[in-house]
Amino acid sequence: MQTKSPVFEDVSNLLTNAFGAAKGVGDEVRAAARARAREFIADMDLVTREEFEVVKEMAAQARMEVEALKAEIEALKAAAKPKRKTARKTAKKPAKK
Fold first, then answer.
1. What pLDDT, on a 0 to 100 scale, did the predictor assign at position 81?
2. Which superkingdom, per the lineage (predicted)?
3. What is d(CA 48, CA 65) in angstroms, rounded to the nearest whole number?
4. 93 Ramachandran zone, left/alpha/beta (phi>0; psi -120 to 50)
5. What is the signed CA dihedral for 41, 46, 50, 55, rounded to 10 degrees?
6. What is the distance between the alpha carbons of residues 51 and 59, in angstroms, rounded to a whole number?
7. pLDDT at 55
């Protein structure tokens, strides 16, 4: 029967604790980096995806309204053009002497 050496158990426990501590430090570093990245992005005054989508929809709606108004203006211009009368040629009057 094999017996466990107390030295190997101590080394094993030490390494297990060291890896656990390293993982904890890694998690803290990741959390701090995420927080710092969020601060950096907030300072850049970027918009959220939701805000972008709302403004994109507003711009599309405005484009459609502009096109409709352009068509309406063209229709009004066409209706407002006076019909051309046929020009009459007038006889030239003789010059006075």
1. 83
2. Bacteria
3. 26
4. beta
5. 180
6. 12
7. 98
**Is the dihedral angle over the CA atoms 30, 33, 37, 38 positive or is it negative?**
positive
Where do the structural domains in the chain lie, given as residue ranges? 1-46, 47-79
Of the CA atoms within 13 Å of residue 76, those in its CB half-sphere come to 6
- Determine the residue type at 74: E
Which two three-digit tokens encode residue 89?
């040629």
Residues 51-69 have pLDDT tens digits of 999 999 999 999 999 999 9
pTM above 0.90, yes or no: no
Q: Which residue blocks in the chain are alpha helix, DSSP H? A: 6-43, 49-80
Closest CA to 48 of 35, 32, 56: 56
- State residue 93's pLDDT score: 72
CA distance 1 to 5: 13
